[in-house]
Request: fold
Amino acid sequence: MDFEALFQFLNDLQNNNHKEWMDANRKRYQTTRNSFIAWLDELDSKLAAIDTDYFPTSGKKGINRINNNLLFHPTKPVYKDHFAAGLDQRSKQGDFYIQIGINESELAGGYWKPDNKILNSIREAIDYNGDELQKIINKKSFKDTFGDLYLDKDKLKTTPKGYSSDHEHIDLLRHKTFAVIHSINKEDILKDNFMEYVIEVYQEMLPFRRYFNQAVTV
Reply:
């Protein structure tokens, strides 16, 4: 994968963020997109080989649209400043997310603003065995890789219904999003061993994602 070419395409796109430019450069876009899909397919195969619970997800299925949704976000530019995909899509909400962009690149995973049914299942798991989750997120290598849990802006200030304010894991129970993010710099993306870098982050994130996937499955 020529990530330098991907970055150059995204830079040019942001300087010409309109449909006329994209139409004139459609072949270049498709070449870049197809190269990213092929890279995702290789990563998908390697992740499936190291993770027995992995749900194979092709690059073509996992890749996100480059168009912004202007119906819900009319002030955004026509096109995004990144390529992104979600792999291991047994549950789309809990997939392994990869974003390569000119302003922000990251690896992420977990559950982003899940519906009430899933949220309730997660809270039940924390109520039953929050110590296990606490052990996972407090592990030094995990903190070094991801820092703290993603802090959702609408995190409850009170207590969720059915739980006591003095619950030992009340801070976790108040979350509405359960996810972590690992930021990546361009220099690491352009290195020959970038795929191995991604796999290492995936493996560090795996116990965290398994905890929540088990919670919503059970």
The first strand starts at residue 82 and ends at 87. The longest helix spans residues 26-50.
